[in-house]
Amino acid sequence: MKRSKLLNFSTAAYLLIVLFFIVNVVTLKQYGMTYDERNYAMIGQMNVEYFHTLDRSQIHPLDDLMIYYGPAYHIVQQVFGLFAQAVFHLGYIDATHLFLVCTSTAMLLVVFFFARSLFRPSVGLCTVVLLMLFPHFIAHAHYNPKDLPEAEMVTISLYLFYRLYSTKRYVYAILAGAVYGFGLATVVSILLAVPIFVASYLSFLVFQERIYQRKDWRVYLLKDVLLFFVFAIVLMFTMVLSWPLLWSDPHIFVESIRLFRHHSWNGQVLYFGQTYLGSEIPWHYVLLSLFMATPLLPFCFFIVGLVRSGKQILHRKEMFPYAFILCWAALPLIIFMLPGAVNYDGIRHFFMAIPPLMILAGVGMDAVIRGLKNILHTRPVLLPTIFCIIVVGWLVNESRQVHPYEGAYFNELVRLIIPAHIETVFEVEYWGASYREGVDWLNTHAAPNAVVCVPDGMHMVEMYPRRLDILLHCGDDSTYVMYYTRGGPRKIPAPMLLNQQSTQRVYTISRQHSDYLYIVSISSVSQ
To answer: What average pLDDT does this structure show over 306-329?
Structure first.
């Protein structure tokens, strides 16, 4: 490809990535925190204190499970948050969310490099467009300090791993080991990426290097063994360095693996209007959740990219990049479809599959643009520009309809089939993110000396600034009840309604004709 075209595609991608960062910084204050964020923040805070004092008593489990969650990402997020509060005068929630936005922006950049290296710069640009406007990516870039960082570290590690075995340079072995070790020190479930590493390497040997045809295959593989040895040593060193509890108790890592292998969740999942245990939900939950979370344009591009991948592999053209991306996309989905796998929260647990799926969609979008150019014989720049503007406009409008609750997004076909109250059929509201807007309403409209009951997730509401006369308490004296609709409309706890004549819903947060949050007034107190 000519250098001028490479620069044009790269410049456009860089500008879009910068725009993503700016828009998400501007909208930072519109996103609330979610249920587990405070726990991960506490993990980071306790380990920061440990670094200051080297006193192991500073680290204590928040519950029976949290001690097995690695602290690496959360330590850096807390340090960055303190810096952002001091320098940019942000509130605590916005300061920690800013770090998530920064790392998500870095992920976009790496995905562009990856798609550009595997295919061509135009595919990289299309991938950036589709991923940065993927509604759930936007949402998780603000409030998911575990699963999105996991996907980011898998993506960066795989890119560096790809550079390692395509260049045979030790610097990439060191960098890949450092990133993956940091990821393991954040959440050991990142081990799910090991089959992806193995599959990508084997596909490289078979399809790219044709190792079975090389007479020097022993020398070739010996160099790779040395590179992997460096990768593994750096990985272990980084993991231990980033996880202070391992310094005195290395067995915790083994226990963490055992915990996540037999992970359970005692909640229930709303799926097609029925509730299931997370370990008993139908296998198609994974595929259907992924489809419902994907706007139809990227989904159609993905189908085109998938068909093109099949054709290229069958015709033995560019077999390695297509085999690599297909393995990366498929393996996490297959793992979570296995019997007994615990599934809930839609696409959150297999978010590491989103980057390769968007790369495949980028392949499809690029193929559509090239096909239109060949059919219409238009000027080289005009048609791609118009087409991209249409795609961007459509996807921006999809996110705009649910903003700032992109984590509750359902695509156009789902909304056509279920035009209203999707929350009665599937999980919608993302674990209390709507409480921020609810607290704003209470600060403005609640009666003097209001007593607000939050049946689920009061610890989140406590993190937001609120009027001094508003008390958070659940009891017979409560004057308001605020609750989110996740899992179907929740009933107000029975004790709260004793001796009450009636209740009245005074505030509702809705998007696309579906409800996310209710504030109910209890009528025994004059409002």
So the answer is: 89
Rounded CA-CA distance 300/306 in Å is 10
End-to-end C-alpha distance for the chain, whole angstroms: 69
CB burial readout 278-309, b (16+ within 10 A) else e: bbebeeebbebbbbbbbbebbbebbebbbebb
Q: How many CB atoms lie within 10 A of CB 179?
A: 24
User: To the nearest whole percent, how much of the chain has pLDDT over 70?
Assistant: 91
C-alpha to C-alpha distance for 26 and 171, rounded to whole angstroms: 37
Residue 58 φ/ψ, nearest 5 degrees: -70, -20
Closest CA to 70 of 314, 246, 229: 246
Q: Amino acid identity of 345? A: D
* Omega of the bond leading into 404 within 30 degrees of 0 (cis): yes
How far is it, in rounded angstroms, from Cα 270 to Cα 428? 9
Burial of 375 (0-12, 13-18, 19+ CB in 10 A): exposed
pLDDT band at 498 (very low <50, low <70, confident <90, very high): very low
Among 422, 411, 524, 510, smallest CA distance to 478 is for 524
CA atoms within 13 A on the CB side of 243: 27
User: What tokens were used for 176?
Assistant: 């890949």
pTM: 0.93
Q: Which residues contact 83 (CB under 8 A, 6 or more apart)?
A: none
Helix (H) or strand (E) holding 314: helix 296-314
- In this predicted structure, what is the pLDDT of residue 154? 94
Q: Which residues contact 353 (CB under 8 A, 6 or more apart)?
A: 290, 328, 329, 330, 332, 333
Task: Quick: pLDDT tens for 409-452.
Answer: 999 999 999 999 999 999 998 899 999 999 999 999 999 999 99
3 state SS of 276: strand
> Residue 249: which region, alpha, beta or left (left: phi > 0; alpha: psi -120 to 50)?
beta
SS3 assignment, position 508: strand
CA distances, 294 to each of 135, 145, 221, 243, 272 (Å) = 8, 21, 41, 35, 18
**Residue 525 — very low, low, confident or very high, per pLDDT cuts 50/70/90?**
very low
Model confidence at 232, pLDDT cuts 50, 70, 90, reads very high
* Paired sense of beta strands 480-484 and 451-453, if any: parallel
- Report how far residue 422's alpha carbon sits from residue 29's, in angstroms, rounded to the nearest whole number: 26
